[in-house]
Amino acid sequence: MRVVVAIAALSCLPLAGCQTTGDLGRPRPNIIADKIAPAIGDWSARFRGEASSWFHLTDDEEQLRARAWRIVLPAHERSDFDREVSKLAYVRILPVEAQSNDVLAYHRALTSGSFASQASRYNRLSEDANGDRLLLGQFRANALRVINADRARLRVLDASQQVPPEQRDPATQRVAENEGLILWVCERARFRLKSYRFSLDNLVVEMPSREAVKAERAIMGLESELGTACNLPLIGVFGGKGGEAPPRPPVVYKG
Q1: Does 20 score more than 70 pLDDT?
Q2: Of 30-39, 78-87, 97-106, 230-239, which range is least confident?
Q3: Residue whose C-alpha is closest to residue 74's, from 85, 65, 66, 82
Q4: Model pTM?
Q5: 118: how many CB neighbours lie within 10 A of its CB?
């Protein structure tokens, strides 16, 4: 599997716009990132049997995907290969299962570079955990707006005779995409939390520091926010509610 992912990643890097970045580290607007990569991703998703809607994204849906970007990517920028795989998963060229679940990766990246002192490593850990906590709070508010809009969408779809048949499948597929994105973000946020805890424990063993207290508090804050952000009143398209694990892989669509 790793070999297949590597080949796909290397062959698709230009398509994902990996060499140029804009806000939140996402690819800058260009025809490759905005048109070609999503089109290939849409075809790949359909080939895998995932929901894929041709509907335009609402403002809240666009914003939800923008906020998801940072969380679904590896936390440390030195995890180069894993970041490129995640970028390809984000545009759906690769399935989300292709992402790494190695909790050691963040610690390896954190300790691989040169730092002025051990405090720098602890500070970076604290900053990453605090940044995730703040972003999850914003993501939760955004996700609630999307969920409420999807409930309204489905109510009208069930009650109205004015909606033509060709509009019905894309509507339900968009609800599936939105819910899959929320579940994916929660899954990757939990993975980040595990990675941070692993790194903190090993930093304390290798180089004890008073800065560990600050890092521990940041991680505890992230854990608390994650419990709130990932306990949402989901519609249940994937058969799971809130923090429950979905029975099938989540999907995401970048418009």
Answers
A1: no
A2: 30-39
A3: 82
A4: 0.84
A5: 17
